[in-house]
Amino acid sequence: MSSTHDRGVLALRLLMGSPRIALHGWGKAQALFAEGPVSFADPLHLGATPTLIIAVLTEFVAPMLVLLGVRTRWAASATAATMSVALVFVHGGALTGDHSGELAYLYLVGFVVLAIMGGGRYALERGGRAQEQDARDD
User: Fold this and answer.
1) I need a surface site. Which of 34, 35, 41, 103 has the fewest CB within 10 A?
2) Long-range CB contacts for residues 25-30, cutoff 8 Å, separation at least 24
3) Is 114 exposed, middle or buried (CB count within 10 Å of its CB: 0-12, 13-18, 19+)?
4) Per-residue pLDDT at 3
5) Distance between CA 115 and CA 43 in Å, rounded?
6) Is-contact 18 113, C-beta < 8 A?
7) 96 SS3 class
8) Residues 62, 65, 66, CA angle at the centre, nearest 5°?
9) Sequence ranges of the domains in the chain
10) Integer Cα distance of 113 and 13 in angstroms
11) How far apart are CA 3 and CA 80, in angstroms?
């Protein structure tokens, strides 16, 4: 693979993971550990607390792993699954209108691409064998 490709995967990891953490995951993580009862949407009827825990795992922890390039395929798949639920169950699959799921769709697409491509050469979990193989592939 070319270094341009690897830089593109790194950029995608950073550009998908950072806003997911900062704009969505961080607030949910704070809500999870706040005092008092949990009040959170429950589209799959699992209960507010379990749903919030899943949201924190897939909107804070998993994007952090994507950002760092650790278990990227797994982490991106988990986040993509959450974006699928948001798109279908929360936004009714609508990509336009007042309750548009366009943002959920864009996150879904980006994380699906990362789930397919993996972390790339600049991922933290890349070890000696993988880097040696990449060098042979170039």
Assistant:
1) 35
2) 25/55, 25/56, 25/59, 25/60, 25/61, 25/63, 25/64, 26/60, 28/52, 28/55, 28/56, 28/59, 28/60, 29/56, 29/60
3) buried
4) 87
5) 24
6) no
7) coil
8) 90
9) 3-137
10) 10
11) 26
Residues of the chain with pLDDT under 70: 1, 127-138
Q: Write out the DSSP string of 53-69.
A: HHHHIIIIIHHHHHHHT
Cβ neighbors of 101 (< 8 A, separation 6 or more) are 86, 87, 90, 91, 92, 93, 94, 95
Question: How confident is the model at residue 129, as a pLDDT?
Answer: 44
What element of type H or E holds 104?
Answer: helix 102-117
Compute how many other C-beta atoms are within 10 angstroms of the C-beta atom of residue 123: 21
Q: Which residues of 6-27 are buried (b: 16+ CB within 10 A; e: fewer)?
A: beebbebbeebbeebbeebbee
Question: How far apart are alpha carbons 69 and 126 in whole angstroms?
Answer: 8
